[in-house]
Amino acid sequence: MNITDTKEMKMIQAILGTIDEGIHAVDANGITIFYNHVAAKHDAVEREEVLGKHLLEAFPSLSASTSTLMKVIQTGEPIYNQHQSYYNIRGMLIDMVNTTLPIKVDGELVGAVEIAKDLTKVKQLSEKLIDLQAKVETAQRPKKERRSQTGAKYHITDIITNDPVCERLKIKALKVASTSSPILIYGETGTGKELLVQSIHNASPRKSEAFIAQNCAAIPSSLLESILFGTAKGSYTGAVDRPGLFELADGGTLFLDEINSMPLDIQAKLLRVLENGVIRRIGGTKEHGVNVRIIAAMNEPADVCLREKTLRSDLYYRLNVINLQIPPLRDRKGDLPLLTDHFIQKYNFLFGKLVTKVDEEVKVRFNQYDWPGNVRELEHAIESAMNIMDGDSITVEHIPMHIAGDTPAPERTKPISLQPLRQALIDTEENLIRQALAETEGNIQKAAKLLEIPRQTLQYKLTKLNIL
Ligand SMILES: Nc1ncnc2c1ncn2[C@@H]1O[C@H](COP(=O)(O)OP(=O)(O)OP(=O)(O)O)[C@@H](O)[C@H]1O
Ligand SMILES: [Mg+2]
After folding, report:
1. How many CA atoms lie less than 13 Å away from 363 in the CB half-sphere?
2. What is the whole-number distance in angstroms between the Cα of residue 227 and the centre of ligand 2?
3. Could you list the residue range(s) of the whole structural domain that residue 89 is in?
4. Which atom of ligand 1 is nearest to the CA of 197?
5. Of the chain's two ends, which shows fewer C-beta atoms within 10 Å, N or C?
6. pLDDT at res. 147
7. DSSP letter at 84?
8. Cα gap 193→34, rounded to integer Å
9. What is the DSSP letter of 406?
10. What is the per-residue pLDDT for 236?
């Protein structure tokens, strides 16, 4: 190895040292060749005790069959996202998700690397959340009438529409509210899925029981299972008896949002619960019967989810007993006047204003616009206008530029002053990003989807443009 190689090696080591995930690499003989500070912290050992040593010598409690690194060296097959929960030798509870990959050079297996994500904090937070939810449930049990106030606040009359398809949907929702059959809902972002689900719960005989909503995309998949089904003491070191959301929602409704983000093995478990009506806590032996109505929602059409295999077909058929589809706003522009008026009244009340209308030109622009963020986007456009306006009428100057469109508006007829192209591009990019974030209420994942760029790219641009 010449000097440059050594320098490059040192640089690579320094780079890997800055990553805040544990990295542990061994050569084909099981000798540790790289072990960063984070990995050493998880294992509560000094790096020097591990570097250059054989894995089983450095970690005597492991064996060739229990060590994932050794397994990968033997099989050459990767092991993805393995959840491990253990106390290290300092007595710290560590919750990790490990991915172990073979390292191949010119097709030959030369070693293996393990990348360990620390979930301890996320897990503690989500467990706290469940404990709090359980406390709220217990505290409210004697006062049933108060209970629905914390769960579902919307009623079917809160769904503002005069569109014939949506009106039929409301009638269907009221009818199906009386049964316990599963429901599958599809609607683009901002079409009012949460509104509809809460309304169904509140129109159902379960209205004074729990309403619990869980977004399946919001929780790391390795934790979702214990959140849904609970854990039993002893299922892994440090595990305590904890009910899952199914038990907390017993007698009521469990809304599983973005079900197409749920890992397929958990979807299989969900199907079993739907079929047998019993759950077993992770690591537990006892089965609990639960009486929960499941409402699931997807933000992609079913045929796409089935084709892309993000939704199991057996679960789809079980959930699809009742199917509700909310049309996007662009397909029901007849709803625009009613919704516009509704949001003007809402913000008049909140802001203490006396706005009465939108002017004709705004109506035209609203009708021409595509509304990719649906009703939520309309609400935000009106909220934003009512923040900046005086007087009683919303005019085209008050509404976001992308909705106002290209047709000349008074100031826009003036020639645009020239500016360097590079700066103009940066400004445009920043505007589009801010707009996407406003429409998705700051949700980076969703904003990236609207902008059709990877989430990581958006994250990078946010840092670069100093947004957030
Ligand atoms: N028909 C409607 N009448 C009144 N308000 C509505 C209607 N549809 C949606 N909204 C409002 O629009 C916003 C978005 O609705 P909601 O959160 O139910 O959408 P969603 O489909 O669940 O969106 P996402 O997929 O992004 O979670 C809420 O503030 C809701 O009150
Ligand atoms: Mg929603």
Report:
1. 10
2. 19
3. 3-118
4. 18
5. N
6. 43
7. E
8. 49
9. S
10. 57
Asked which of 309, 327, 345 is the last residue of a domain, the reply is 327
d(CA 424, CA 420): 6
Q: Which ligand is nearest to the CA of 374?
A: 1
Determine the distance separating the centroid of ligand 1 and the alpha carbon of 434, expressed in angstroms.
Answer: 20
The closest alpha carbon to 40, from 94, 119, 108, belongs to 94
Which residue from 189, 339, 375, 449 has its CB within 8 A of the most atoms of ligand 1, so it is best to mutate?
Answer: 375
Atom from ligand 1 closest to the CA of residue 166? 1
Alpha carbon of 375 to ligand 1 centroid (Å) = 6
- pLDDT category at 405 given cuts 50, 70, 90 is confident
Q: What are the pLDDT digits (tens) for 273-307?
A: 999 999 999 888 889 899 999 999 998 999 999 99
68 and 87 assigned to the same domain: yes
What CATH number should be reported for the domain holding residue 461?
1.10.10.60
Of 274, 276, 270, 279, the C-alpha closest to 311 is 270
Q: Which residue CA neighbors atom 18 of ligand 1 most closely?
A: 192
Specify the residue with its C-alpha closest to ligand 1, atom 15.
Answer: 192
What residue ranges line ligand 1, CB within 6 angstroms?
Answer: 159-161, 187, 189-195, 299, 342, 375-376, 379
146: domain CATH number is 3.40.50.300
Q: Distance from the CA of 334 to the center of ligand 2, in angstroms?
A: 23
| Residues bordering ligand 2, an ion, CB closer than 5 Å | 193-194
User: Same structural domain for residues 140 and 19?
Assistant: no
Q: 114, 68 in Cβ contact below 8 A?
A: yes
Tell me the C-alpha distance between 64 and 51, whole Å: 18
Domain boundary, last residue among 95, 118, 141: 118
Same domain, yes or no, for 256 and 371? no
Same domain, 126 and 82: no
Same domain, 315 and 225: yes
Q: What per-residue confidence (pLDDT) applies to 199? A: 97
